[in-house]
Amino acid sequence: MKSPSRTPCVLLSVLVRISKATQRAAWLVLVGAVLVQAARADEVEVADRGQEQPPSLGRKILWYVPNRVMDFLDIFRLRVRFGPGLAANVRATDYGAFYAGHYDSVYVGLPGPRYPHRVRSPVGRESLTGLILAGVDATDDTLHGPEYGASEFNAGVHLLVVGVEVGIDPLEIWDFLAGWFLLDPIRDDYPRAKPPDAHRATSGLSIGEGEGVFRVEPKPEQFESWGARLDYQEENVRRRIHEPLRAADAYFALDPDDILVPPQTRVRVKLFGEVMQGRDIELRFEPDIELDVEFPNIERRVRLFVETARSDEVHDRTLQESDERGVKIGARKWFEQLNVSADAGMRASWPPKSFARLTWVRDYEPETWRLRPMQRFVLNRDDRFASVSTLSVSRWLGADNGGIVVNTVSGKWTLEEPSWQWSEGIAVARVNRLLDESRRGRTTVWADTAWATGLRYTIFGEGDRLNTHRAGVSLRRPLYGQWVYGELQTGMEWDRDDDFDGSFFVRMGVDLLFWGTAREL
């Protein structure tokens, strides 16, 4: 038991500690009050001046640490959403954004770039309804939009009651690094004025209709129906892609008074998902892009192409099975008399790789048979050389050419793998409609159909070894107008890696055609 004489000393010691803690807390409160008051004072000054002026050096130093923290958090979007909805999105800046669906939710997590807001809460409401294709916005305006940064890269999905989204903004990385040297490229550092319209309505993009040659038609605040969204997309996706390319081609015209009009840009976007059920259930998403642009005013008459890397694989390989994933972008020169095309470009992957490619293809149509041989040589930057050979033999059936049977053999040889990778498939289909009916009776592939039902059996192997059997049925139908087509494939696959145990697969998606031929049917 402590003596009574020591009790006052103990009490005095406790009071001193309490006093010190109180002083520290008071200092923190005082510093915080000064910072808040300084920010408010700056806001009043800015409002009085009618325009924003850069803060003084002293205020920059005072806000240095908070600004660096906020700049770092602005880089990332990482949150979970809770609420009813069904949606998916992927974006590579606003001009490469894709979104479809609807959700009305509450989110928790990092909300992404805060500009033009001073602060964005880690908890809040968010909703978005509509469609975005190739950076063309057909979503409804909302007071609770996601407010993406124009340079943001992200992906997300919302399934029924829960969603998740992750993203990163390269421009915010630059703003964070510049901030260490008291620079503010985005002009979001504190102190700064409160935005004049903090509760403005937003949609799925920050660029709106775009500027200059990238500009599209203004969209309504609310679309009447999904059909109205699709009509808006059909016209403006082609405009968004075609007009910048047309302007670039006109720049190279030899005679400004005699500019050739380039043909309509042909863009094809396929969005497919696949569910594979074997020992485990696997979900895959497979976007497929084809773009072919002619530049008639460029002196050498080259074409621009964008395509998936699958084009250099054996026939019937999916993107997920491809050894080289990514999108290839390049220039193409077509030598019509030789039936040869020469390509050079880059594969948009990490790290990027350059490539050169030489392709010979020709159609032969002796009597009732149709033959299409193709030989391709590919050289990549790292000296990887490949040779791809394909022969397709087909025959139309019936007096009205309503059916077709196709046999395709394909092989690929590389320096790294001396043994051939190969595939052989046979397919029979009932073709109710083609995208271009003038091709009925000629060499045709499944992608040329608008309405068809088919059966296909394909085998894949390497050298003298058979690796995979695949059998299935395919359905293809027009979904909207003459540019949106739906496709469903289902069947069984037997793979050597799984001891040839059967795996059931379902592959379905949409095929979007932004080119003139489909509209003329």
Query: Helical region count?
Result: 6
Q: Can you give the helix content as a percent range?
A: 10-25%
Average pLDDT: 82
Poorly predicted runs are 1-12, 25-51, 517-521
How many distinct beta strands? 19
Describe the overall structure.
The protein is an alpha+beta fold and 521 residues long. The chain contains 6 helices and 19 strands. It has helices at residues 7-49, 57-62, 64-74, 170-179, 226-251, 516-519; strands at 76-92, 97-111, 123-133, 136-139, 153-168, 266-277, 281-294, 303-308, 327-335, 340-348, 353-361, 369-380, 385-397, 403-414, 421-434, 449-462, 465-480, 484-495, 502-514. A 14-stranded antiparallel barrel has the order 6-7-8-9-10-11-12-13-14-15-16-17-18-19. The chain has a 5-stranded antiparallel beta sheet with strand order 4-3-2-1-5. β13 (385-397) and β14 (403-414) form a beta hairpin. α3 (64-74) packs antiparallel against α4 (170-179). The radius of gyration is 30 Å and the shape is globular. Mean pLDDT is 82; it is low at 1-12, 25-51 and 517-521.
Labels describing this entry:
about 525 residues, alpha+beta, five-stranded antiparallel sheet, 6 helices, 19 strands, about 20% helix, disordered N terminus
List the helices and strands and how they pair.
Blueprint: H1 7-49, H2 57-62, H3 64-74, E1 76-92, E2 97-111, E3 123-133, E4 136-139, E5 153-168, H4 170-179, H5 226-251, E6 266-277, E7 281-294, E8 303-308, E9 327-335, E10 340-348, E11 353-361, E12 369-380, E13 385-397, E14 403-414, E15 421-434, E16 449-462, E17 465-480, E18 484-495, E19 502-514, H6 516-519
Antiparallel strand pairs: 1-2, 1-5, 2-3, 3-4, 6-7, 6-19, 7-8, 8-9, 9-10, 10-11, 11-12, 12-13, 13-14, 14-15, 15-16, 16-17, 17-18, 18-19
Helix pairs in contact: 3-4
